[in-house]
Amino acid sequence: MNNPPKELNVGHMLSYLYYFFAKFGDGQIVVEEQQSIYETITEWMGKDSSFDENKKVLLEAWDWFDGCDDYEKPDVLENVMSVLKKSDAFPNDMLPLILADLVKIAKADGEISGNETALILRIALSLEIDMAYIKALL
Fold first, then answer.
1. How far apart are CA 57 and CA 16, in angstroms?
2. Nearest residue to 80 (alpha-carbon basis) of 21, 13, 129
3. SS3 sequence of 60-93
4. pLDDT of 95-138, one tens digit each?
5. R_g over Cα of the chain
6. Cβ(103)–Cβ(121) below 8 Å
7. What is the DSSP string of the chain?
8. What is the pLDDT of residues 44-92, one digit of tens each?
9. What separation, in Å, do the N-terminal and C-terminal C-alpha atoms of the chain show?
10. Which contacts (CB < 8 Å, 24+ apart) does range 28-34 have?
11. C-alpha separations of 66 from 21, 29, 54, 109 in Å
């Protein structure tokens, strides 16, 4: 298993989650999804974060994601979501925003597939997000 970045932060964890979703939602990460992930992480990192800082977080997260074997990635994702739920740096009332990001990433290549919808629901359950919020998104 590939180790997470040395200075692991919320940006890395969100990036990992988004890469996982883009890859396993429909089997591949296309350019439109990569662009959507970049835009989403840039929003999360805030206006004080530079292009180079955002790029570094995304590249480190990609190395982490890509360095894991496919059979390991779901376990890493579960660990990431567990840490996000417990993190003081990421308030629980912001967890539903992750689902909105996933819908945006899914739509980046044209439509939300059935597999992407199922993965959104799985992630929502792991993050303990109210189903009413999910229904409003989908």
1. 10
2. 13
3. HHHHHHHHCCCCCHHHHHHHHHHHHHHCCCCCHH
4. 999 999 999 999 998 889 999 999 999 999 999 998 888 778 77
5. 14
6. no
7. -PPPPTT--HHHHHHHHHHHHHHHHHSS--HHHHHHHHHHHHHHH-TTS-HHHHHHHHHHHHHHHHHS-TTTHHHHHHHHHHHHHH-TTS-GGGHHHHHHHHHHHHHTTSS--HHHHHHHHHHHHHTT--HHHHHHH-
8. 999 889 999 999 999 999 999 999 999 999 999 999 999 999 998 889 8
9. 34
10. 30/108, 30/109, 32/108, 32/109, 33/105, 33/108, 33/109
11. 13, 12, 18, 21
C-alpha 72/C-alpha 34 separation (Å) is 22
